[in-house]
Amino acid sequence: LPGYGDSPLAEMVVTAQGRVAFLDRVLQELGLQRPVLISPSMSGRFALPFLLVQGDQLAGFVPIAPVGTKDYTAEQYRRVQTPTLILYGDHDTVLAPQALQNLQHLPEHRVVVVPGAGHACYLDNPEGFHRALLGFLRQLK
Is 119 labeled as catalytic in the residue annotation? Predict the structure, then answer.
């Protein structure tokens, strides 16, 4: 993502609107229609504003202890109708509880806690992570 890792910061992603436009362009360039957006950690800065503005373009949303959840209100979350699987590791005691407290306002959500895993639950317990993810994907229309 622009501005993370070794990527230079792009002017367009400085604002939430710019991050929504960036993600929308990526999805268009890839030719994806109604994808499931998986958003671990820092990618929450891109995925959350996109979900709130253009969530109807998604078949599903999978936040994995994303940052930025406190930037939005319970009412904003309640308006989202995108099926959501909230995932986090049981050893992630800092970011995950905060994210869950905010994301639980999404009306179409379910929560899976990945056992024996920390913040990067997909790395710590890939089998548990994939089991939860595939179960969610199978239930989507």
Answer: yes
